[in-house]
Amino acid sequence: FDAYMAQPISMTTAIVLCVITTFSNPFKRLATKSRVFSVLGSLGLLPGFVIAGLVAYFLNEVQFNIEWGFKIPAVLSLIEKTSPLYLGFPDFNMYVDAIPLVLIGYMLLFGDLVTGTEVLKDAQKSRPDQTLPIDLNRSHLSVGIRNLLGIFINPFFPTQGALWTGVHVVVAERWKQGPKAMPSIFDGIGSYYLMGIPFLYFTLPFVTLMQPLMVMALTLTLILTGFACAYIAMSIPKKDSEMATALLIAFFITFYSAWIGLVVGIILSLLVDGYERDAEA
User: Fold this and answer.
1) What CA–CA distance (Å, rounded) separates 220 from 128?
2) In the chain, helix, strand, coil percent, each to 5?
3) What is the DSSP secondary structure assignment for residue 237, as one 8-state letter?
4) What is the DSSP string of 25-56?
């Protein structure tokens, strides 16, 4: 909340515009009739983010200090300071102390896999021309192998998640609009991860431009993540008891703590909802 109050007008502008261009049905109908709205929608979060950045600059909510040129990240120095191959591996007690963190990490991974899968399943309904190969076993192996390699290179916990929800939703929503908008969902994924981001990391103008806007970008990502998780969570429960359980879990997580909400959720799921062997996964 403090971060939001530091840039209230620009953050509000970014949130409103990005939610409209990503989720708004009236905007999507306009995009089918107007070339201008179609182009704006094809740019994902960029139009809202650019406009919000300009608003922040003109209202003095941020200050830019642009530097020019290219810079190679100090990868070797980073590895020397973080890699266990240089620092040495910790003793056994540290592994034991990390067990709660491992459990929390897997809960987050589980949530990411559910969110990502449901977003893709929802998008698949609009694109029968391309069948998405959803395989949770492969997803587990991919994340596990990547993070195992990360342990030896740069064991930084916040970067070892499975899903960038904001971008995932934007790509899926664009893919839903048909082959003319995005022939393959891998085109959208490649635009983010293979073409744009790796190159921009080496350009000082982009890095220094984004530094004052990082709080806004993080807030925007969290808002879009919350929006996506909300409509997914509401679509999964089918029975009245499941809906009530989901509502109570959300209540306890919001007003008490995550652990209380999880415990209440497990108890209600077992005692109220029960387990059906033939239930749909």
Assistant:
1) 31
2) 75, 0, 25
3) -
4) HHHHHHHHH-HHHHHHHHTTTHHHHHHHHHHH
Residue type, 90: P
Instruction: Supply the pTM of this predicted model.
Output: 0.73
In sequence order, the 6+-apart residues with CB closer than 8 A to the CB of 253 are 260, 261, 262
Give the distance between the most distant pair of CA atoms in the chain. 63
Q: How far apart are CA 237 and CA 232, in angstroms?
A: 9
- CA-to-CA distance for 8 and 1, rounded, in angstroms? 10
Instruction: Take residue 54 and report the two structure tokens written for it.
Output: 């300009």
Are 203 and 70 in contact by the 8 Å Cβ rule? The answer is yes
Q: Which residue has the tokens 């209440």?
A: 264
- Mean pLDDT in order along the chain per 10 residues (281 residues): 79 87 84 82 80 89 86 83 87 88 83 88 90 89 88 76 80 86 85 70 84 83 79 80 85 83 84 62 45
Considering only CA atoms, which of 85, 107, 84, 86 is closest in space to residue 94?
A: 84
Give residues with Cβ within 8 angstroms of 125, minimum separation 6: none
Helices (H) and strands (E) in the chain, counts: 17, 0
Beta bridge partners of 70: 203
Reading the block at residue 99, the tokens are 């067990």
Return the structure tokens found at 210. Answer: 């984004």
Dihedral, 43, 217, 213, 158 alpha carbons, nearest 10:
-130
